[in-house]
Specification:
Layout (H helix, E strand, L loop, with lengths): L5 H14 L11 E8 L4 E5 L12 H11 L6 E11 L5 E3 L8 H14 L4 E5 L4 E5 H4 L11
Parallel strand pairs: 3-5
Antiparallel strand pairs: 1-2, 1-3, 3-4, 5-6
This protein binds tetrahydrodeoxyuridine.
Length: 150
């Protein structure tokens, strides 16, 4: 288990859910929300942004990392929450029984800021009935990152 308090955990999960209502996903109709928690308490969210040229679509986690890093943040990532599913009327994702976990590309994108700050963030994958908690290192073992370039 991570060192997150249950209040931090609950508010990060709520932030990811809320973020999913901002998804632009007319092609997949699959809304994803991500919320990143920094050690200083900052929470940054993202939602997936699709494109008519399907392969150019951006995942929620990648959007959140881009927001964070373009604000000048270079570390301190301690937790990530992700939710995905068909949108309810509110636009929020309705998670299925199997929680969504970050795709391979997003794991690598998350690793950049994690490795820059020397953290191994908790990853909370939100499902309909439970939240599966893991870590980025477990999802991306032997990661290639900034340190690999020497
Ligand atoms: N998606 C994410 O936003 N994050 C992931 O980690 C997995 C997939 C998005 C991409 C696409 O817009 C939709 O989910 C269906 O694949």
């Amino acid at each position: 288990m991570s060192g997150l308090s249950s209040a931090q955990r609950d508010s990060l999960i709520a932030a990811a859910r809320e973020a999913s209502s901002g998804a632009y996903a007319p092609y997949s109709n699959f809304h994803v929300g991500a919320a990143l928690l920094l050690a200083d308490g900052t929470v940054v969210t993202g939602a997936n942004v699709e494109n008519a040229s399907y392969g150019l679509s951006l995942c929620a986690e990648t959007v959140a990392v881009a927001k964070l890093m373009s604000d000048g943040k270079r570390g301190g990532l301690i937790a990530v929450a992700v939710v995905g599913g068909r949108p309810a009327a509110s636009g929020e994702a309705t998670p299925g029984a199997d929680p969504v976990s970050p795709c391979g590309r997003c794991r690598q994108v998350l690793n950049e800021i994690a490795q820059l700050g020397g953290t191994d963030p908790a990853v909370l994958c939100i499902g309909a009935n439970d939240v599966v908690e893991t870590t980025l290192a477990a999802l991306l073992p032997l990661a290639f990152g900034p340190a690999s370039l020497g």
